[in-house]
């Protein structure tokens, strides 16, 4: 088993990855990465300049227009994805440490980030080997048309700070499998693990220009999104930023996939067996310290069982071990950066002022004087019109809302500008399925949330446009072309 002393951690990134090479940037602005558990320096990256962004797009454009990548067979392309996944597995100890240091994921959970990235790439490779990139269709006039699904072109992937490596893989994998070339823009808060993908691209001999990596804050990143040589944007982040990307791309009718915010509801049905389903119920709102777009932060419970459920959930929250992400005993780590912690704290105060009852949490845990920590927080007696029930907090803050009937629960769950995730807790999965079909949301888990690279991921309403993962994710990086033959010709 590797130890910290055995690992070579690339924590000081002074270059950008363009055209298959690490190249100097003319930037003088350092983006400091801070360990959220200890408030100490974890590393840094130099912010890319607008000129660096243009160079990255130009390299991707050249690789798409004149390079071999789009002209390789799908089988040849996905061999690189399998090799990239193998390298991620090999570097898992390194990626785990970087994930702990820059994101604050507990040590027992951090290896899962690299595993999910590798699994996603392999699943895309498997899917692409049988994907109908070309098919024939018979027309009403007796002729034949061939329908080709061709690569969309130069794609830009904007990855978030909360799941940088798995989300990058979710975007990069299908783009490369489809034949696109790619510019990856990690979050300036958590760029270190994602930058390792550039090292891996060199290691596996990925053709130059197929993958480019540049990190920047919002202003410089908008320059990248606005580049008219970019054919496709795939973005994960806030709804406000997603709307801005739509506006920037509208002038050129740029293709866009947006995976945005959420305020998901989990509905506890009256037949729920709490002994069997409590772990799934409580983790839906506080997993990843609540920093997940799909988190079930509205807990809808039958009024007749409200006190029972609130007491059980509160007891579980109080038992969660919050602490330093480096510590193997830690079950829940810190908020990823200070500004986000302050936002969470403000919402807790808003909840109190709105009249919700703070059952447990809401404070810095005792004994943790350093780091950006907050206790798992549960509010009861919440009305769905309160801000804590309507606005995305992105922290471990869950609101309990009582309902009178299943119809009432569905109405409350759907009364949101978001529609990303959701859940049903029940002893009868088929009954849960019937309720799930009534929810206006992109994903519903029965007695748990099941995120899988083969299953589409995305939302309704202000939670986004399009889908990632599965066949739907691969389709999003293609353009469809119909080539028609006269009757009696073609096949």
Task: Supply the number of helical segments.
Answer: 15
The unreliable regions are: none
- The CATH superfamily of the largest domain appears as Aldehyde Dehydrogenase, Chain A, domain 1
Determine the strand fraction and express it as a percent band. 15-25%
Strand order of the largest sheet: 15-16-17-14-13-18-19
Distance between the termini: 57 Å
Query: What level of helicity do the residues show?
Result: 25-40%
Global mean pLDDT: 96
Number of domains: 2
Shape descriptor reads globular
CATH architecture of the largest domain: 3-Layer(aba) Sandwich
SSE order and pairing:
Blueprint (H helix, E strand, L loop, with lengths): L11 E2 L1 E4 L2 E4 L5 E6 L4 E7 L3 H16 L8 H17 L1 H12 L7 H19 L4 E5 L5 E8 L2 E5 L5 H15 L2 E5 L6 H13 L6 E3 L4 H9 L5 E5 L2 H12 L4 E5 L5 E4 L5 H13 L11 E5 L3 H14 L18 H17 L2 E4 L16 E4 L6 H4 L6 E7 L2 H9 L7 E4 L3 H8 L8 E2 L17 E2 L4 H6 L2 E7 L7
Parallel strand pairs: 1-5, 8-9, 8-11, 9-10, 11-12, 13-14, 13-18, 14-17, 16-17, 18-19
Antiparallel strand pairs: 2-3, 4-5, 6-7, 7-21, 12-20, 15-16
Task: Characterise the protein shown here.
This protein is of the alpha/beta class and 491 residues long. The chain folds into 2 domains: 275 residues, Aldehyde Dehydrogenase, Chain A, domain 1 (3-Layer(aba) Sandwich), CATH 3.40.605; 189 residues, 3-Layer(aba) Sandwich (Aldehyde Dehydrogenase, Chain A, domain 2), CATH 3.40.309. It is 37% helix and 20% strand. The mean pLDDT is 96.
